[in-house]
Amino acid sequence: MTPSDPAPGVPPTGAAASTGGPARAVDPARPTRLASPGAGAAMVLASCVSLQFGAAFAAQLFPALGPGGVTFLRLAIAAVVLLAVLRPAVRSWTRAQWTAVLLLGVAMAGMNAAFYASIARIPLGIAVTIEFLGPLVLAAALTRRARDAVWVLVAAGGVLALGLGDGHGSGSGGDGGAGLDLAGVGLALVAGAFWAGYILANTRVSTRIPGTGGLAVAIGIGAIAVAPFGGGAVAVVEQPHLLLLAAGTALLASVIPYSLELAALRRLPPRAFSVLLSLEPAVACLAGFLLLAQALTWLQALAVAVVVAASVGSTLSARGKRAPGSPPAQAATP
Q1: To the nearest 10°, the Cα dihedral for 241, 107, 292, 158?
Q2: Closest Cα to residue 249, out of 211, 287, 278, 213?
Q3: Rounded Cα gap, residues 280 and 276, in angstroms
Q4: Which of 24, 63, 268, 303 could lock 40 by a disulfide, CB 3.0 to 4.6 Å apart?
Q5: Distance of alpha carbon 224 from alpha carbon 243, whole angstroms
């Protein structure tokens, strides 16, 4: 998700660059209007809050719908809303365009499914922090600069420190003393890998399909891809109120942050956009604490701060020129 700097919409990095959330694409052109930077900053922060609190609300639906069911409903509802609003001209798409959108849809499915399965096992803030490794590693690989590799190592050190505390993390609500669930950590890493793939696939779609219709169709493809694992969604038939809650999650974790980030990209330079998005792990920790009673140990909180600092540092140390092969600027919500 960057022209001259790190990709807005992903943890800031010199080449590729929320969270988590749930949810991320914009035209590759550089923002043409940088008016109202204060409003743009507020939009990015509001996007982070909406995205991470949406993920926290999603976790509360896991007992009734399961992570797979929540993932399916979130993507399906978001796709319906965006397709109805954007109405992409799919009949004119070529085979190459459809292939690009298909790859993006698969990346979105993997990213969201792995992330939701992760936050069913470990605290939300920790999952988002671990997931940030994906875009950071991608940026370092694309730029091939030693200083970007250093930032990745710093972030990796922070992630390793997450497991050294006494944990509060063996489940979405924590159990007050067990260490981090290794399956949850692994799933967060998988989500990060899919996030990196999402960035590359989204860049490809942005260069092949004008506008944002490709993203809307990709979200629909993602919903179809996770449908076999979304059997828990049938619970909405007997409990219709769950569908309303799932719709709220889709709006909070996809539609609202996506719209806010699009507007913010027109008001902020890419570097400022990425720096603000680096706060997503901290916002996720706050959402987990307020809505899911997930308190971190002091060491885990420090580890999250280290990863945020590495993400900010990677952005601020980026050169003015975009590295060859690096993705253009994009919003971050997957």
Answers
A1: 180
A2: 287
A3: 8
A4: 268
A5: 18
Residue 148: what residue type?
D
Other C-beta atoms lying within 10 Å of the C-beta of residue 85 = 11
As a residue count, the chain comes to: 334
Could you read off the pLDDT of 90-113 as tens digits, one per residue?
999 999 999 999 999 999 999 999
Q: What is the pLDDT of residues 259-293, one digit of tens each?
A: 888 788 778 777 777 788 888 899 999 999 999 99
Distance CA 33, CA 265 (A): 9
pTM above 0.70, yes or no: yes
Q: How far apart are CA 32 and CA 270, in angstroms?
A: 11
Contact 46/312 with Cβ under 8 angstroms?
Answer: no
The answer to whether 312 and 278 have CB atoms below 8 angstroms apart is yes
Q: 328, 192, 310, 329: which is closest to 261 by C-alpha? A: 329
Residue from 145, 151, 261, 267 nearest 212 by CA: 261
Q: DSSP strand E in 107-160: where?
A: none
Query: Vertex 285, ends 3 and 232: CA angle to 5°?
Result: 95
Kindly state the tokens that stand for 171. 């489940």
What gap in Å lies between CA 83 and CA 263, rounded to an integer? 19
Report the chain's C-alpha Rg in angstroms: 18
- Amino acid at the residue 320: G
CA dihedral 107, 108, 109, 115 (to 10 degrees): 110
